[in-house]
Amino acid sequence: MTTPEQPSEKLDFKRVLPIIVIVFVDLLGLSIIIPILPYFAARFSATPIVIGILQATYPMMQFLGAPVLGRLSDRFGRKPILILSQIGTMAGFVLLGFANTLTLLFISRIIDGISGANISTAQAAIADTTNEKTRTQGLGLIGAAFGAGFVAGPMIAYAVLLASRGDYKVVALTAAFFSLISILLTTFWFHETHRNDSPSIRSLKSPFSFGRLIEALGRPTIGFLLLIMFFYQIAFGGYEQLFSLFTLTRLGMSATDTSGLFALAGIFIIVVQAGLIGRWSRLKGDRWLVIMGVSTLAIGLIGTSLTPRVPVPWYDRTKVLEGLAGQSDLNLSTQNIRVDLPEEINKSWFGILWLVVASFPAALGGGVLHPAVNSLITQSSDQSEVGGMLGISASMYSAANAIAPLFYGSLFQWLGAPVPFMAGGLILLALWFFAPRAIPKTDGR
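-> structure tokens emitted (445 positions)
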């Protein structure tokens, strides 16, 4: 008799490396666009609430497209679906670059959102190439690639805007170029992973249902952690997506200026995630990380909302308006711009320095909360339901991504630029107040 071969406990890094790199390159394109999308929309007379709806279009389409692409990849294989979705993403970026109406901007984000749902296909490919003992590590690397792409993208956007003297079209085409690279990587490096006996993406996490959500929310610890995940992303997601509009109306900062702030925050997040979060988790525990993350993010958002309306020293209202109107081939007038820019009075460093100081605790909280909350959810779940609980956590995160820009955009337009950031900070402050009692200590921490 022969004994069954035991699943290896070591992840085959060579097999998953192409998937990780492809996800990273894919996310570079998306994150290059995020800091400048409000500037794209502002040139077509978009109000803050319309900008919020535009920002929400991508996650809404992604939510709808992910199950469809996942099922298609089960039927036709991972590779052709990845390539098809990447071609759609590249087309969306090219259309964004040449868009001359607000309608085309929306169409570009719809195309990109449906195509951008290929993360589910990448997860399925990871499931194909791992076993029960290595799958969590493989999916963790996908998450790391996802985060790294979001951090690196704004840095690239900043460099491109500097080199192109603030040409948004060049930024969009740069994002399209990275999509082209991901297509080439998938075509020539990625090998088909799907077999008839491959685990479906559905084996990674139980299907979402409102019944399972209500049951999970009813659990004392897990329910509170899911609420933190949802409201954290409402607050931080809105902060990320409307931050550019805030700096424009509050400090008169151009797309290049704001991309530089995103890049600075990205460097700080890399330091936190790569060098500090693991050490803090070992020394203090994930409970401490969650409570610290909620408090620092709250402080950062409230501090951001209190940023004085003092234009940066180099602010030139005419040049900012001309930059928003774009290149001459669009035939747009600066009179189309409906954004409330500050006047050219009392310019100083005070406003930008205040915002930079407030951005550090916001970036710190945003950088530690997602992994720390999910880690605590796994620790509070039975081994047999970890995948299902992480699936519900991902659903809460996705729903918050769609709601956040609508929430921030509405408050921004109707109550003023500081209000949504203050509201997000106060929501997190309330969660921080209850967190020490709602999250029990483990191992004395």
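The radius of gyration is 22 Å.
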